[in-house]
Amino acid sequence: MTATLETRGLHVSFGRTPVLRDVNVTVPAHTAVGLVGESGSGKSTLGKTVVGINTPRQGQVLVHGEDVFAVSRRRRAAMRRQVQYIPQDPFSSLSPRRTVGQTLAEALDPVRARPADHEEAIVHALEQVRLDAGAMRKYPHQFSGGQRQRIAIARALVVQPRLVIADEITSALDVSVQAEIVALLRSLERTMEASLLFISHNLAVVQALCEHVVVMYRGAIVEQGRVDDVYRDPKHDYTRTLLASVPGSEGFHLD
């Protein structure tokens, strides 16, 4: 079976500064993969490169076997719809001038963005993240941080993507809300067709949510494998340091 996402020999630089070095990552179909490492390790850069925000200096980004950077502009636009990115701060990514319904309609139809044309799909996406249909008519400031994160997840799901990239989406939330979002994602994993690349510095959250883990250090992959195997028997010194320094947030644990 073709992987949902595969990067091959990916190099990304900002100016003359290398940020990603020979990154090879595979996200199998219908699988949650955690991408961990300290701040500045290159995790978010990798996620933004996959969705086309950054352009690689060298290497390939394959979505279901197609190289995102080797296809026509029209095809690339269609492929980007298949890969949805959820940022860390949903408030800054949600327009304060648009209702939730307009925001989700824009994801479905960027030209007209009329909620009435897509009401069934929008309501279904909101129900998936446990928000009622009335949320369509409200604005982002009328919701809590956890609810705004649910809206951001709904915006990603409404287009029925093949891959969802969640970039530190629990880090700004308090522990109880963080646990709710993780529980929601675990529930969604059982029903949605998409794979998940979950970017986080929280190893305990990754353990609770993901089947596989990829460890990044200074722009390179130093270790990857099944979560339980890597956590139980880390092979790289950096992975051992990470595991030793992060005991896990309240409500989670590292076995």
UniProtKB/TrEMBL annotation:
InterPro entries given in the database record: AAA+_ATPase, ABC_transp_ATP-bind, ABC_transporter-like_ATP-bd, ABC_transporter-like_CS, P-loop_NTPase
Gene3D superfamilies: P-loop containing nucleotide triphosphate hydrolases (3.40.50.300)
SMART domains: AAA
Alphabetical list of CDD domains matching this protein: ABC_NikE_OppD_transporters
Segment forming the signal sequence: none
Domain ABC transporter span(s) in chain numbering: 5-243
Keyword vocabulary terms for this entry: ATP-binding, Nucleotide-binding, Transport
Family: Belongs to the ABC transporter superfamily.
Official protein name in the record: ABC transporter domain-containing protein
Organism whose genome encodes this protein: Pseudonocardia zijingensis
